[in-house]
Amino acid sequence: MNLNKKIILGIACLSSLGLKDASAGVMQIHFTEDKPMIETDLSAIDKITFTDTSFSILSTDNATTDYSYGEVEKITFSDFNSIHKIGNEDNIRLLISPNPVDDIIRIVGYNNSEPAQLSIYSLDGEEMMRIDNWQGEPIDASQLSAGIYILRINTHTIKFIKS
Question: Are residues 74 and 87 in the same domain?
């Protein structure tokens, strides 16, 4: 199995751990051929099972769909429960896009007229990056190793995966 497939498998395994609690999350399967992308609400997935050559998705209605690693280019997970309000305006919502992140973190929905303190923490609580007076610009995350992180803007947090 090549490195890209192992990374996809690892992200899928990590992300599937919390499927039962992910009421507003989405899984997208992108194919290597001209097949259209499939998007599935995580609350409709009961279980994902991985083998050496493929994976199966068992939905909550007991239907099983099998996918070969060779036909899948990538799998992405979006957790819309990670959208938080920031600032004084009720209509401001934040979202990390894309999630998982490659090297650049983009935060959608930030009102850049209000500078903020932005920090990124590892899951063990170590501050990995800090930007004082952040104003909504993309964040270079290339120095972060693959894993799960917490991004904090002022008092609001968003979980993301670095691939």
Answer: no
